[in-house]
Structure formats: C-alpha cells, structure tokens
Write a structure and sequence with these properties.
Family: Belongs to the 'phage' integrase family. XerC subfamily.
Organism: Alkalicella caledoniensis
Pfam families: Phage_int_SAM_1 (PF02899), Phage_integrase (PF00589)
Number of strands: 3
Largest sheet: 3 strands, antiparallel
Structural class: mainly alpha
Strand order of the largest sheet: 1-2-3
Number of helices: 15
CATH class of the largest domain: Mainly Alpha
Shape: globular
Distance between the termini: 69 Å
InterPro entries: CB, DNA_brk_join_enz, Integrase-like_cat_sf, Integrase_catalytic, Integrase_recombinase_N, Integrase_SAM-like_N, Recomb_XerC, Tyrosine_recombinase_XerC/XerD
CATH architecture of the largest domain: Orthogonal Bundle
Strand content: under 5%
Protein name: Tyrosine recombinase XerC
Length: about 325
C-alpha cells in the first residue's frame, strides 16, 4: 500500500509538470484515484493485485504469476464504471474519472511497474450532447443591472458581472486578475488560464467604465490597507474567491427574479452564444475563450430560439 501511495504521488507530480496542470486539477485527479482504490478495497479485496501485487515489493513470485493475469482483467474496471453509473454520476464525470485512471495506468506501464495495461480495452463512454446553458439578452441585462450602485459592494458586484459577460473569462481567471494586468485604455485584460497560459482578452467600454468606477470609489475602502494588488476583494479586504462569486450571482439572480439555476460559467456560455449568434468568427471566439481545441468552442454554435424563429419567419413562405 505504501508503495502504491508513493506511485500515485509520483504520477501526480509527473503529470503536473508534463501537463502544467493547476492545483485544482491535480486535487481532482488524486480524489479520483483514491475513490478507485477504495472501490477495489471494498469490492475486490481478493483482486487487489490489479495494481497491488505487481507493485508491492514483498509480493512473492507465485503471487505475481498466479493471480496476476486474472486480477488485471479489464472486467474489474468495467465493474467500477457500472458502480459509478449506479451512483448516478453524470457521464461527463465518469469520463473524467476514467481518464484519470487511464493516465495512471499509462504511467505504470511506461515506467515498467506493470507489464500490461488492463484499461486499454476500455472505451471511453460517449459524452452527453447537452446544449450549454445561457441567458437571453434581456435576462442578462436584468441580472447585471440588479446591484445597488450606491453601495461599495454593489458597485464591485456590478463590475464583476460586467467583466464576466464582456470577456467570457473563467471565474478562476477573474479572481486571479491583479491591477497590473489591466490595460483599460486599450480595452484589454491579461488573464492566466488553464495550464498557467496567459492571454490578452478584449473587454467592452461599459465593463471598463465600471471597473474604473469600482477601483476609484470602492476598492480602496474595501482593501482596508491590505498589501496585495488583486483587483476584486471581499468585505474583509482579501482577494475574492470563486465560491464568493458564485454566491454573488445567486444573490442577484434572486433579486432579478430569474428562475434559473446558473453558475459563473453561465456568463462564459452566454458570452460565446451571443457572439456567435451575431456572426462572430468561430476562431476568434476560440482565442477569446482560451480553448486549445476548436471542437470545445463548437458547442456554442447552437442557434438560439429567437434566431431560429427569425430565420423561420423571414424564409418560410407561409410564415
């Protein structure tokens, strides 16, 4: 067990360096592997050599040669996938967990800790093709205009929502913005995305105006003389967290009486949907969103109901 734990740590360290992953990603990967280990311990204790017997230094040659072939059977992995489905995990979550285990086994075989990779026979489940959740323009307007601008926190909240909608940045990118990253006179902000990759993102004049108002009228008071340069701060003067941003949006969804369940990421979906709906180039949107693969951006090429109706009304002879 101790050697296995060390190998998990070695894998995570290696993966973090190779893929330049964030701490959040590595934490998720570790949780996935721990969950898989617990499943094996609770349901296949006699079959633990699927990863244990070949890894434990004190395993006998008889153990390795006898049970090992049976224990590495890919059917155990299939049982684990069935277990995850029985726990009602979303297909996207199951796919991610399988991807983590697949990467770990590749690591074990690459460095000769295992001879065969039992997961090589497992196909990745087909992902659900759900349309991204987004807000219509009138809904977004009502939401963004909800904060009380006479209140310092309200002005901050307006600036946050204006920036999220104007730029389409991730909430993790928003909370990491520092004052030095702002180039408001040029309508640009430098953000650090996944894999610590930096990119410049254009933002509109309205968002720029509210960020300037927030800096001039609210931020100085809210920071309470704390020595940091993060753009957005909480009521204690510390850098705001992604969880706080989620609570802020929940608060104003309630105030605006919008009966939908959304997250900060919905602003990103809405940003991309509205751009493409108005004829923006797909490659340009890909750059703005910081997507490595254009296929990720293509999920936003769905047509909104309003545009679909307009197309129908203007083209069908009996509309």
């Amino acid at each position: 067990m101790e050697k296995l734990d060390r190998l998990v740590e070695d894998f995570l360290q290696s993966y973090a360096v190779e893929k330049n992953c964030s701490h959040h990603t590595i934490t998720n990967y570790k949780a996935d592997l721990v969950q898989f280990q617990l499943f094996l311990a609770q349901n296949h204790r006699e079959n633990l050599s699927i990863i244990y017997q070949d890894l434990e230094e004190d395993s006998t040659e008889e153990q390795k040669s006898g049970d090992s072939t049976q224990l590495k059977d890919h059917l155990i992995i299939r049982r684990y996938l069935a277990y995850l489905q029985g726990c009602n995990y979303a297909k996207k979550t199951i796919t991610r967990k399988l991807s983590t285990i697949r990467s770990f086994y590749r690591f074990l075989t690459k460095f000769n800790y295992l001879e065969n990779n039992p997961i090589s026979k497992i196909h990745t489940p087909k992902s659900e093709k759900k349309l991204p959740k987004f807000l219509y323009k009138d809904q977004m307007k009502d939401l963004i205009e909800s904060p009380d601008l006479t209140d310092k926190l309200g002005l901050r909240d307006r600036a946050i929502m204006e920036l999220l909608y104007s730029s389409g940045i991730r909430v993790s990118e928003l909370v990491g913005i520092q004052l030095k990253d702002l180039q408001l006179s040029r309508g640009l902000i430098l953000v650090t995305g996944k894999g610590s990759k930096e990119r410049y993102v254009p933002i509109g004049s309205i968002a720029c105006d509210y960020i300037i108002r927030y800096i001039d009228l609210s931020r100085g008071t809210l920071t309470k003389n704390k020595k940091h340069s993060y753009l957005f701060v909480n009521k204690f003067g510390d850098a705001i967290t992604d969880r706080s941003v989620r609570r802020i949006i929940d608060k104003y969804m309630h105030i605006a009486s919008i009966k939908l369940k959304i997250s900060p990421h919905t602003f990103r979906h809405t940003f991309a949907t509205h751009l493409l709906d108005n004829g923006a180039d797909l490659r340009a949107v890909q750059e703005m969103l910081g997507h490595v693969n254009i296929k990720t951006t293509q999920i936003y090429t769905h047509i909104t109901k309003d545009k679909l109706k307009n197309i129908y009304m203007s083209t069908h002879p009996r509309a």
